[in-house]
Amino acid sequence: MDIKEETGGLAQRRRLGILDSAKRIFAEQGYRRTKVEDISNDLSVGKGTLYRYFPDKKGLFLSVFEYGMEQLCAAIFSKVDSMESPPEKIKAAVRTYFEFFEDNPQFIEIMMQVRSEFRSEFRQIHLELYGKYIGRSQTNLRNGMANGQFREMNVEQTADVISALLQGVLQNFYLSEFETSNENGGMAKRADKRLTDYVEPVTCLVLEGLLRR
Amino acid sequence: MDIKEETGGLAQRRRLGILDSAKRIFAEQGYRRTKVEDISNDLSVGKGTLYRYFPDKKGLFLSVFEYGMEQLCAAIFSKVDSMESPPEKIKAAVRTYFEFFEDNPQFIEIMMQVRSEFRSEFRQIHLELYGKYIGRSQTNLRNGMANGQFREMNVEQTADVISALLQGVLQNFYLSEFETSNENGGMAKRADKRLTDYVEPVTCLVLEGLLRR
Amino acid sequence: MDIKEETGGLAQRRRLGILDSAKRIFAEQGYRRTKVEDISNDLSVGKGTLYRYFPDKKGLFLSVFEYGMEQLCAAIFSKVDSMESPPEKIKAAVRTYFEFFEDNPQFIEIMMQVRSEFRSEFRQIHLELYGKYIGRSQTNLRNGMANGQFREMNVEQTADVISALLQGVLQNFYLSEFETSNENGGMAKRADKRLTDYVEPVTCLVLEGLLRR
Amino acid sequence: MDIKEETGGLAQRRRLGILDSAKRIFAEQGYRRTKVEDISNDLSVGKGTLYRYFPDKKGLFLSVFEYGMEQLCAAIFSKVDSMESPPEKIKAAVRTYFEFFEDNPQFIEIMMQVRSEFRSEFRQIHLELYGKYIGRSQTNLRNGMANGQFREMNVEQTADVISALLQGVLQNFYLSEFETSNENGGMAKRADKRLTDYVEPVTCLVLEGLLRR
DNA sequence: AATGAATGAGTGTTCATTCAT
DNA sequence: AATGAATGAACACTCATTCAT
Fold it and tell me: Which of B77, B171, B90 is nearest to B133 (CA)?
């Protein structure tokens, strides 16, 4: 049992090591431009080793995405679940969302790529994992309406719109984040903008709207 | 001059014909899956002909995108420019944006693909053409603040966030639009949701926010 | 029409050229060891050209086999159909069969390879084209029995056995034909044995048997 | 010495176990499609173990063939050696040959595969082991001629032709044995034909020929 | 002796682009 | 101007074999 656990631990460590390297390479070069060999070279292992842990290139890529999504959801839930006030929950979710991607900028790239390369798989994983978030968001809006903090609204549509807002800001930021691509297809970062700068205006827009009270 | 203009007219017509066919095929099959021959077959011309009007496959695809962006901007500006009230301008822009994509659903697909296939080119075209929109949006916000209709805000960030909101809703809708992919890679539409259903909740969120007044 | 015919003629010529080169290379190197590029190099054309004329490597290989089988059947039928006497027909068929393979030694190799690489396809083509031969062979045996030249026999089994005899001799010869394989996988011919040497003993065995009369 | 013999006995038993498993798997799946791991899994041992008993995959396969050939020769010789009459010896050899393959249908598959996968090795083993048979067959024919039972003939060629006849019938049967391949690449047997049905027509043809006496 | 994780050579096929006609 | 036959670079994946444990 010791041996098995230890072995399992080693295999698990290697799996995570591959996921990490793959996340980096895929984010830097893009799914299409990335050769499986690029990742195995980065890890200094043989190509075949990757195929011992993941079924194929696509499966590896989707695992990178799935793993990131799980971490994102966990991060948001662990923050929000301990709060009570609906507006506070929204603030916390917005902040955690942006902080997560600020800490994992490569994952923005991964998300964008999965979205376009594997529409249906993205939808499935997205719906599975992110669906939970939408459900909680709707509950939160209903609670806010019930206690009189929020105005009347169509809860389903509004939850969709808020979720869309976050994703839209993320993508806009992602598009403005990189100034130029160099010869190797790599990107040079722009340091003067931070994703978390958008926490305040987004929260304010969502809660207050534009019109003067 | 007559001859040249006429020739130019013919060439221009053919160019537009190619753009139209390409938009359709690219949207249906995706950029990667689309062979140049698919488009030339659709037009009943030889492959080589396309290369007389566009430098390469990528250039054709980007032209399809650029042409669509121009149409989108023109549609929004023609609606909004005749209005005075800042909130009304926002309402009109939101409505026109969603109506445009409801009328040109293929262009949603094109946008998503450009975004992921040609990051830097997308950014460039996006910034060039859409930059104008952002500038006008900022002006509108400033006008609204000046006349006391809008609360105080960081205009640049808020304009970004509103723009992001629209794009986010569009993408969310695009992801939910298609239920299942059939064997041919084609998609089956879902008829029970309309993009313009989001005009009201989006407008309301932007202008009013969530908190009860 | 002229153009089309001419074009068709050119395309047909190229097709036959590819079949001829493929037959040679496949026979020399074997199906597995032969790279598609080996054939295209032999023809001094690009790899892609082969794929304009044949669907894939397997399809090309099977076409080589099918084409050879058609030629074999045509050769046998053109000889035998003009004859009347059942024993003479058998003699002629045996002779033509061995002569064909003596003139097309590469085709022996092709047959052996198809047989093992593509069992089911071999069977299908074999049955389709060779089935005709078996039918005629049975008819011939029945005619010989009817006119009293042949003894009583089970016609179906005997036709099978005679056909098997020819194939068996062919294969035995094929196995003894090549002395050693050199480094390149090529073979050095042995000149002191001829397939047609077996015409007489085979014919004699089939018609007379071993027992003294 | 006891230990060594015992160990040798165990090793020998394991060797035979591997040969048996390999024969089955190779016959079912074919040489190319069979992975070394398939065999080691079937034996519930590690892959490396096979390499302790056989040099490589090819060597294992050829050993399977060689072992079968030895068994075939032994079967034929044990039957024929006790007989005197040349025609009876032929009858017995034909019957034993077909009976052997009827009892070891997997070995038909093995033979066919060796023949095409390893031409030269097949020839070598074939000549070594089967050469003995041809020699005895020639002696038998000479004895038959000497005692007046057989007609005059070229003994070498006729022995070849008779051997070829058996192999040809075997292969024809092998080709007709399998109706269709299912999805797994497996084959469905046809039950209405038996290899031993050919003992009589083959024997009759060899001894009597077709012509009425 | 036994294991099985790691290795990496090897290849069929697609399709954007060219250019002779 | 238009064509479409020809080109050839590019790349994922398998699996026999090895060797550290």
Answer: B77
- Integer distance in angstroms from CA D62 to C1' E18? 51
Of D21, D78, D24, D10, nearest to D45 (Cα)? D21
C1’ F14 / CA B31, Å:
30
φ/ψ region of C20 (left if φ > 0, alpha if ψ in -120 to 50, else beta) reads alpha
Q: Can you spell out the DSSP letters for B11-47? A: HHHHHHHHHHHHHHHHHHH-TTT--HHHHHHHTTS-H
Buried/exposed A183-210: b ≥16 CB within 10 Å, e otherwise:
eeeebeeeeeeebeebbebbbbbbbbbb
- A44: region left, alpha or beta (phi > 0 left; psi from -120 to 50 alpha): left
Whether chains C and D touch (3+ CB pairs under 8 A) is answered by: yes
| Nearest residue for E3, CA–C1' | D46
Query: Could you tell me if A195 and B161 are in contact, meaning their C-beta atoms sit under 8 angstroms apart?
Result: no
Q: How far apart are CA A68 and CA A55, in angstroms?
A: 19
Cα radius of gyration (chain C): 20
User: pLDDT (tens digit, 9 = 90+) per residue, A86-142?
Assistant: 999 999 999 999 999 999 999 988 988 887 788 778 878 877 777 788 899 999 999
CA nearest neighbour of C117 among C164, C76, C61, C173: C61
Q: Is B210 close to A158, i.e. CB distance below 8 A?
A: yes
What gap in Å lies between CA A80 and CA A86, rounded to an integer? 10
- Rounded Cα–Cα distance for residues D198 and D97 (Å): 11
Q: Is the CB of B148 under 7 A from strand E?
A: no
Of C96, C196, C186, C102, the closest CA to residue C137 belongs to C96
| Tokens, residue D83 | 């007989």
Q: List pLDDT tens digits, range C85-125.
A: 999 999 999 999 999 999 999 998 898 888 778 877 887 88
Residues of C in contact with D126 (CB under 8 A): 175
pLDDT reported for residue B47: 95
B147 three-class SS? coil
For C49, the token pair is: 């050209």
For chain D, which ranges sit under pLDDT 70? 1-8, 177-192
- CATH architecture of the domain formed by C57-208: Orthogonal Bundle (1.10)
Token pair belonging to D23: 């024969």
Nearest alpha carbon to residue D192 among D212, D176, D213, D204: D176
Residue spans per domain, chain C = 57-208
**CA A96 to CA A77: how far, in whole Å?**
9
CB pair distance less than 8 Å for A149 and B212: yes
Residue B127 corresponds to which tokens in the numbers above? 């910034």
Per-residue tokens: B210: 């969530």
Residues 6+ apart with CB under 8 A from D137: D93, D159, D162, D163
CATH 1.10.3720.10 fits B1-54, yes or no: no
Give strand ranges (E) for C23-181. Answer: 178-181
Spatial distance between the Cα atoms of B112 and A122, rounded to a whole number of angstroms: 14
Contact D64, D125 (CB under 8 A): no
Using an 8 Å Cβ cutoff, are B188 and B179 in contact? yes
Residues 6+ away with beta carbon under 8 Å from C30: C109, C113, C185
CA distance A78 to A72: 10
Cα D123 versus chain centre, distance: 13
Report d(CA D204, CA A126) in Å as an integer.
75
Residue C155: CB partners within 8 Å, gap ≥ 6? C138, C141, C142, C145
Fold of A58-208: Tetracycline Repressor; domain 2 (1.10.357)
Residue of C101, C120, C78 lying closest to C167 (CA atoms)? C101
Tens digits of residue pLDDT in B94-138: 999 999 999 999 999 898 888 778 877 887 887 787 778 899 999
Distance, in Å, from the CA atom of D173 to the CA atom of B126, rounded to the nearest integer, reads 70
User: Strand, coil or helix: what is B56?
Assistant: coil
